[in-house]
Amino acid sequence: MWCMPCPEASDERQEACHLPASADALGSLRMIALVDCNNFYVSCERAFAPALEGQPVGVLSNNDGCVVARSEELKALGIAMGAPVHLIPPALRRRCVLLSSNYALYGDMSRRVNEVLESLAPHVEPYSIDESFLHLDGLDVAAAEVLARELRGRVHRETGIPVSVGLAPTRVLAKLANRFAKHGDGVCYLAADGATTQAQLEQLPVAELWGVARRSAERLAALGIDTAWALRQAEPARVRRALSVVMERIVWELRGHGAILMDDLAAPRHHLLVSRSLGRPTTALHELREALRQHVARAGEKLRRQGSLAQVVRVVLRTGPFQVGRGAYRNAAQVTLAAPSDDTRELLRAAQQALAVIYRDGYRYQKCGVMLMGLVEAGAAQGRLLTEDSAEAARRRRLMAALDRVNRELGRDTVRLGLPRRDSGWTLRCANRSDRYTTRWEELPRVRA
Predict the structure, then answer these.
(1) Nearest to 165 by CA among 196, 141, 131
(2) 28 Cβ contact partners less than 8 Å away, ≥ 6 residues apart
(3) Which are the contacts of 59, defined by CB distance < 8 A and separation ≥ 6?
(4) Residue range 233-292, pLDDT digits in tens
(5) Labelling 16: which of 23, 220, 347, 363 has CA 20 to 30 A away?
(6) How far apart, in whole angstroms, are the C-alpha atoms of residue 28 and residue 31?
């Protein structure tokens, strides 16, 4: 679908004097591209298994519980996103290929896609594992379309992943243009003004607009704003008073004025949770400790990646909600650290203390998790730590940095705290996981002549 700009564009100079400060700062970004990988998880699987092309393919959540990614063929069969596998009729299940999630493969393929984008675009801004914004400063519509089609061809040729490209003057409109591109030839330009843009915005419920959460949509509906066009036409100051400055900036973005930074749509994180169902219910304390060790390792990596320190470690533990003839139990405990930390060893010691408090013998536990709370910025917090020897603190930071670097370059869990037992109950079920073709030497594709 190619949406041409309307020749009757409104005069932006009159509106510009009312823009918020962030819009003035971003006013030069007049062409934004959103590159979105189509059915990303399924496309990653098909890139290494061409026989899956044309078949209804789904990717399952952790422990093979629910469908979290669908090919177009699977959608056509009526299988909904999030559908529990055990509720899919057997006759329908036999027609599908349902694969366990392979996040090592998906993460590496995402990196490869962005490498191709960075070779062609001056500035790439990753937004999620399958989406990136590209800043195409100074390109007119025709030049942007040519580049978008070259991007699609290069990404598919070099990674095997099909992508769609939405072009627009702002991020919000580019996100919407990408939605239309998926139903057309893969590239769509959406102008700030014009009959086509108005028609699309009039048909789009405000709840489906990027950056508008369910509660915000409900508050907008109370103001009589139920479509994206109604939001665009609303008085920005009124929207700001009733909701937030971010919602006001969405109004400006819908009008074609760049007003949103990526941080505007990222809520500040006050806690970090890593929680997962066990591969099978277990009564063994040592298996819960192993699962918790993995969760703490993941949480520590995330904590350091975002430059934060945790002040409180909270552990949650529960049995399955549908156990027949067995008692149900759920509990949580938390430990406050002596000083804010991102050291996985300290976080794990606190987590093990909390687990010891809430563990009860005889129950069949199905889920455990760790929550890091009271997050503070690492730089600010470390400046206040007067009780800890500065040399020791620096040594801890270097150790954790080295741990993260080794695991990033040589593969997750190359270095870890403790070794899991074989066939532990906590390990995830992934009976149909494909090989990790790009990150494990022993799982490289093999060709037989």
Answers:
(1) 131
(2) 137
(3) 41, 42, 45, 67, 68, 69, 70, 98, 99, 100, 101, 102
(4) 988 889 898 898 888 999 999 998 888 776 555 555 677 888 777 767 888 888 888 889
(5) 220
(6) 9
Cα 55 to chain centroid distance, Å, stands at 26
Q: Which pair of tokens denotes residue 427?
A: 């390990």
3-state SS of 260-300 is CCHHHHCCCCCEEEEEEEEEEEECCHHHHHHHHHHHHHHHH
Q: How far apart are CA 218 and CA 282, in angstroms?
A: 42
Give the relative orientation of helices 245-254 and 171-181 as an angle to the nearest 10 degrees.
60
Q: How far is CA 239 from the centre of its chain?
A: 28
Distance CA 272, CA 318 (A): 19
Check residue 410 and give its pLDDT.
75
- Token pair in block for residue 49: 């298994």
Which residue type, as a one-letter code, is found at position 207? A
- C-beta separation of 37 from 162 below 8 A: yes
Sheet holding 57-60, edge to edge: 67-70, 57-60, 97-99
Token digits for 139?
């390109």
* pTM across the whole model: 0.70
Encoded tokens for 219: 């508050």
